[in-house]
């Protein structure tokens, strides 16, 4: 009879990953969580860190409600900690979710975590890119910052290098810091097949000449109805285009900067005349 409750018990991590809208998460192994090196610096970011960690690892943790009921039954709290030192159940649940999310962001950039997330990516559990030229490229969850509480999770397309909001509103409550800014780039580099899929889609889009036409003629890009966002899907081919792309990406072209420096150079003759006039 005593074995029945143990069989019905569901670990905390499994419960968290099975919650509504938590499809993007993977189960972090206990070995990873129990390694103190993997949790370096998290104690200062999570309130009631030790209690939250014990909750994730399925240890019994006393809460304010438990302490209150125990003191009422015994008449005095005795050697048990005071209620002020214990979190309530709601705060403990929030701290445990925050701690697990930050641990999750570190776990998915490890070898085991990358493999687990790559399986989800292959199954298209994160959705597909809505752009036509990306041809249904699978998306990758990403955060715009590693600081929790700043922004919700986004989805990154390795083909067009753009970021999208999740199509379902149930994912808009997930903190982007629970996936971090490092994971998408590391996943693409760890699995070259992803880059190969993007390369195939880019080459296919260049070979096929798509676009809106009127009586067989293309619409000019300068037109109000022209393909103004076409540059988002263009990739440099020749060395000249690559140099132009790098100049546009990191700063102004050298020719423009040189002409700008000449135009803004002070006229020494005029300054000398003004100085002499003021002295006289």
UniProtKB/TrEMBL annotation:
<dbReference type="GO" id="GO:0060962">
    <property type="term" value="P:regulation of ribosomal protein gene transcription by RNA polymerase II"/>
</dbReference>
<comment type="subunit">
    <text>Tetramer of two alpha and two beta subunits.</text>
</comment>
<dbReference type="GO" id="GO:0051726">
    <property type="term" value="P:regulation of cell cycle"/>
</dbReference>
<dbReference type="GO" id="GO:0030291">
    <property type="term" value="F:protein serine/threonine kinase inhibitor activity"/>
</dbReference>
<comment type="function">
    <text>Regulatory subunit of casein kinase II/CK2. As part of the kinase complex regulates the basal catalytic activity of the alpha subunit a constitutively active serine/threonine-protein kinase that phosphorylates a large number of substrates containing acidic residues C-terminal to the phosphorylated serine or threonine.</text>
</comment>
<dbReference type="GO" id="GO:0006356">
    <property type="term" value="P:regulation of transcription by RNA polymerase I"/>
</dbReference>
<dbReference type="InterPro" id="IPR035991">
    <property type="entry name" value="Casein_kinase_II_beta-like"/>
</dbReference>
<dbReference type="InterPro" id="IPR000704">
    <property type="entry name" value="Casein_kinase_II_reg-sub"/>
</dbReference>
<dbReference type="GO" id="GO:0005737">
    <property type="term" value="C:cytoplasm"/>
</dbReference>
<dbReference type="GO" id="GO:0042790">
    <property type="term" value="P:nucleolar large rRNA transcription by RNA polymerase I"/>
</dbReference>
<dbReference type="GO" id="GO:0006359">
    <property type="term" value="P:regulation of transcription by RNA polymerase III"/>
</dbReference>
<dbReference type="GO" id="GO:0032545">
    <property type="term" value="C:CURI complex"/>
</dbReference>
<dbReference type="InterPro" id="IPR016149">
    <property type="entry name" value="Casein_kin_II_reg-sub_N"/>
</dbReference>
<dbReference type="GO" id="GO:0032040">
    <property type="term" value="C:small-subunit processome"/>
</dbReference>
<dbReference type="GO" id="GO:0034456">
    <property type="term" value="C:UTP-C complex"/>
</dbReference>
<protein>
    <recommendedName>
        <fullName>Casein kinase II subunit beta</fullName>
    </recommendedName>
</protein>
<dbReference type="GO" id="GO:0005956">
    <property type="term" value="C:protein kinase CK2 complex"/>
</dbReference>
<dbReference type="Pfam" id="PF01214">
    <property type="entry name" value="CK_II_beta"/>
</dbReference>
<comment type="similarity">
    <text>Belongs to the casein kinase 2 subunit beta family.</text>
</comment>
<dbReference type="GO" id="GO:0006974">
    <property type="term" value="P:DNA damage response"/>
</dbReference>
